[in-house]
UniProtKB/TrEMBL annotation:
Protein name: Antibiotic biosynthesis monooxygenase
Superkingdom field: Bacteria
Length: 106
């Protein structure tokens, strides 16, 4: 069963450039991983001027998503990148979840 991985980020405008650069690096990397199907990104600005970004990646299976998560972590280590540290330094809030497609045709 396909797995959908959704991230929602609340990013201060002052951190938007660094955040979007890092997001593109991550999106480019996952596209080459086995079991990747597609991804999308959506944006808006909230009433406080924050950049709100939602990314959605679709994976062929639970196993493909689990493997991709491990590969992403290994790539972060190779790059010397620490996601939690970046989020804290830039005051970015993240809500992350793994979803299944809802069958509304019942």
């Amino acid at each position: 069963m396909e797995q959908i991985f959704i991230d929602r980020f609340i990013v201060p405008q002052s951190a938007k450039a660094e955040f979007t650069e890092r997001m593109q690096i991550n999106r480019d990397f996952i596209k080459s991983q086995p079991g990747f199907i597609t991804d999308d990104a959506y944006e808006r600005t909230d009433a406080d001027g924050n950049f709100i970004c939602i990314t959605i990646a679709v994976w062929a299976s639970e196993n493909a998503l689990s493997n991709a998560k491990a590969l992403v972590q290994a790539e972060y280590q190779k790059q010397g990148f620490n996601l939690p540290a970046m989020l804290e330094r830039l005051n970015i809030k993240m809500d992350r979840g793994q979803y299944n497609r809802l069958d509304t045709n019942k």
